[in-house]
Design a protein that fits this description.
Layout (H helix, E strand, L loop, with lengths): L9 H11 L10 E2 L5 E2 L2 H8 L12 H5 L1 E5 L5 H11 L5 E4 L1 E6 L2 E2 L8 H6 L9 E4 L4 E4 L14 E7 L3 E7 L7 E5 L1 E3 L9 E6 L2 E3 L2 E3 L10 E5 L7 H8 L8 E4 L6 E2 L1
Helix pairs in contact: 1-6
């Protein structure tokens, strides 16, 4: 339904359906990717999806980021890739540090607790913002919690950073019913959505992360004109590959990063 209607899209449409039904998986568990979609360079993948991000006159307009994204199956390398793209965006880099603490059994640990702050800052639960949050005016962010769902300020909302203050971010919502509306994001205290440690980590930070690159799960429900797939690590299954590829509106704008000398996914 989201594909552009053109004669050359019929083959791509059928290929998507075959992936969704698992018909493209061979006996070795591989799915072949068309040669015109493949790249073997991370830098080339960034160039194909975010080729206009280095404009000397400033960041691209918000609509640009609404239609561009790089997707990855695993969360582990998303931040490194986001930082790499942020470095290409013109403007001064802004850094905000969190105030982290711990609590046990629902009771706050006394302020004189000996838990090293460096140790707390090194923890990176996927549901929490980074302890060292780096941004630039005009960069793409994703909200990590539900602040006000009635205004589309919920987990997964994508936003453009317009301005920063000591305790407030001024952002522009992109996508959804409130596309183009401004909002203000405060520093708040967050806890991980799941218990990962022997203690509960409390992170006082802006509840956002960079979103040039995001996981495949975060991209569900979105339609993109330019889709990059960072698949140096394999997808979980053909169903996840189908979800990823079906975010695109045209086969011409799908670019897949594979390990060198491979033409398919395992």
């Amino acid at each position: 339904m989201c594909l552009q209607h053109a004669p050359d899209q019929a083959q791509f449409f059928q290929w998507l359906l075959d992936i969704g039904h698992g018909h493209t998986v061979d006996d070795a568990g591989n799915t072949e990717i068309p040669e015109n979609m493949i790249t073997y360079s991370e830098d080339e993948l960034i160039n194909r999806i975010y080729k206009d991000i280095c404009r000397s006159e400033g960041p691209p307009p918000p609509e640009y980021f609404l239609h561009h994204a790089i997707l990855m199956p695993w969360n582990i390398n998303v931040q490194q890739m986001n930082q790499k793209i942020l470095d290409r965006l013109p403007g001064e880099e802004l850094v905000y540090h969190s105030a982290d603490s711990v609590e046990t059994e629902g009771c706050p640990v006394p302020s004189h607790d000996n838990t090293p702050q460096d140790f707390l800052c090194a923890l990176e639960p996927s549901s929490l913002p980074l302890s060292e949050l780096k941004m630039k005016i005009g960069c793409l962010l994703m909200l990590l919690c539900n602040l006000d769902p009635s205004k589309d300020l919920c987990n997964g909302t994508r936003m453009i950073l317009l301005n920063t203050y000591r305790c407030i971010l001024e952002v522009l919502i992109i996508g959804g019913d409130h596309h183009g509306e401004k909002a203000f994001i405060l520093r708040i205290t967050l806890k991980p959505s799941s218990r990962q440690y022997a203690f509960t980590l409390k992170c006082h930070q802006f509840p956002v992360r960079l979103s040039f690159v995001m996981t495949i799960n975060k991209a569900q429900g979105q339609f993109l004109k330019y889709v990059g797939l960072h698949l140096l690590s394999s997808v979980f299954c053909h169903g996840q590959l189908y979800v990823t590829l079906s975010r695109a509106t045209s086969s011409c704008n799908v670019h897949v990063l594979l390990p060198e000398n491979l033409t398919g996914l395992q």
